[in-house]
Amino acid sequence: MIAMQNGCICCTLREDLLVEITNISKSGKFDYIIIESTGISEPMQVAETFVLTSEDFKNQAAPNGLTSLESVARLDTCVTVVDATSIFGYFENSKFIDEEFADEGKRDATEGAEESEDNEAAVTVADVANPDRTVVDLLVDQIEFSNVIILNKKDCVAPETLQKAIGLLRRLNPNAEIIPTNFSQVPLQKVLNTKSFDYEKAANSPGWLLSLQERHVPETEEYGISSFIYRRRRPFHPKRLFDLVVRYFMVLEYGHEAEEEADGEESDEESDEEGDSHMDSGDDAGATAPKSDGVEASKGDEDDKRLQERVIRERLAAKKESVFANVFRSKGFFWLATRPDMMGEWAQAGTILSVKPTQAWYASMPPGTADEEPEAKDGADMDVAESEEWKKVFATAEDCGGDAEEAELVGDRRQELVFIGDLSSAVAGVAVPKEELIRLLDACLVTDEEWAAVKEGMVELASARAAKIAEIRALKAAQEERRRRREEERAKQKKSKHKKSRKQRETQEDEDEESIIDEDDIELDLPEVLQQMEDPWESWEVTGHEDHDHGEDGECMLTD
Questions:
Q1: pTM (global) more than 0.70
Q2: Which residues are bridge partners to 280 per DSSP?
Q3: The pLDDT of residue 21
């Protein structure tokens, strides 16, 4: 057995994992390797170690010229063990990883210090996982990525609870094999040399994603657990949606103020300043400093911890008495009226709801900008299946009440959220929770009058962006023309042997060069008609148009 300490194999020890597996493979002494990671590691990142090439690892050299771990070892199976006695309890857990496993981290650090010559290298929870992730979020990720799930302690729960757990796991990951057991006793052939793991399939196996892709029937119920997709072609009013979610969830807002540096590393100062989680009062929508009942504090302070615990208890109690009580998981994309260009990502597990910007809606990109391909909307350069899938994301006149102009303006903007849970059992006096969920979400959409104003703002914003892009392209064209002429002049000078000095040439080039912003970096003021809408969502910009995917690296605000 090889113990890898002072870090985590999904991040800080990734290079060590590469080296150890390569050495074991080349020794020729073993046929199979079992990697047992910590309970707070991220399986997708471990699996990436096998499929990524050496060029994909920043600041890490491949051992002995290795180009890919796949060339010496095949990732055979990814197994997640789930405790049947605590799975539903975790969906009521609102703690962050560093809070839940603080004692374990201290113990590991002490043991690591005793075994390490360098005491400063001892492992902590912060080393092995992003401490700003919540426990339930990590649990769901581990379930959704595995291809074999061992549901342990099956005899320790009632038969109906076991069946409900199986139903939930099946809904979270329809492609995984679920094995109920005691003492984690399973036939070896179920977990060893199965040849069943496929990285691409695992990355696309979450039940919510399969539902959006319509690759399995979401409405069917299994052991009391079902799912449905909420789809609409109107934006949410930011204030009404905010008021709804903060009533029942602890809301984590991830922004993108903390840009990653070119080498993929942030300074300690930047991480300390922008990587923390904050509590923001729902009553003071414009506040970035945490306030609640007159108390102001930051994450980590004792007063803030007590405040956070109280708020969590209140949210948990409110959720239990609402139609969201048995919603275990929801995920998808959403559209805010005041963010007409930016797609929002919605990810809820238990009592935690995370929201963040992901990328620009394709419909907001003028032809030839960003990652948009002008031919894509017409299906050119795609096979029939890809073309049909692409067209599905764009609104039709039928989606917009017969209005073709509105459909073209809306484009791929949409609400598309998958809800997973016990959606048929009566709760909080509501006989059919699903219908009430739909009603509550519909009430957050803009009204007809508001929608007319939003469309006006969208047209204004699109026109302003198109004008700015035309200006940038004209400047770049003029700059390119100057460069062409300069090259011609140099060629003539070379032929006539009348050359300028190097210093003269460089001075001329400096004068000719202009600093022109990239089209993806355009920032525009939000149209006045949209600025008039009350918007409590403070953590991500309103009109940014870059293709963002910052996740946990961005600023995180814990909205209470």
A1: yes
A2: 559
A3: 82
The radius of gyration of the chain from alpha carbons, rounded to an integer in Å, stands at 27
**Per residue, what are the HEC states of 93-133?**
CCCEHHHHCHHHHHHHHHHHHHHCCCHHHCCCHHHHCCCCC
Q: Which of 372, 413, 368 is nearest to 393 (CA)?
A: 413
Distance CA 281, CA 311 (A): 11
Point out which residues pair with 283 in neighbouring strands: none
Query: For the segment 507-521, what is each residue's pLDDT rounded down to a tens digit?
Result: 555 555 667 777 667
For residues 204-243, one letter each, b for 16 or more C-beta atoms within 10 angstroms of the residue's C-beta and e for the rest, the string is ebbbbebbbeeeeebeeeebbbbbbbbebbbbbbbbbbbe
Backbone angles phi, psi at 416, to 5 degrees: -145, 90
- As a 3-state breakdown, the chain gives helix, strand, coil percent values, each rounded to 5, of 45, 15, 40
Question: Which secondary structure element, helix H or strand E, spans residue 246, and what is its range?
Answer: helix 238-248
Question: What are 516's two structure tokens?
Answer: 């022109």
Q: Which residues pair with 231 in a beta bridge?
A: 416
Q: Please provide the DSSP assignment of 372-386 as one string.
A: --GGGGGTTTS-HHH
Sign of the C-alpha dihedral computed for residues 140, 551, 235 and 94 taken in this order: positive
Residue 429, judged by CB atoms within 10 A of its CB (0-12, 13-18, 19+), counts as exposed
Most confident of 129-143, 205-219, 253-267, 371-385: 129-143
Backbone angles phi, psi at 359, to 5 degrees: -160, 170
Helix locations, 394-447, DSSP H: 404-410, 433-442
Q: Convert the pLDDT of each residue in 386-424 to its tens digit.
A: 556 667 789 999 999 999 999 999 999 999 999 999 888
Partnered with residue 417 across adjacent β-strands are 230, 332
Q: To the nearest 10°, the Cα dihedral for 398, 400, 401, 403? A: -90
Q: What is the pLDDT of residues 126-167, one digit of tens each?
A: 444 465 678 888 888 889 888 999 999 999 999 999 999 999
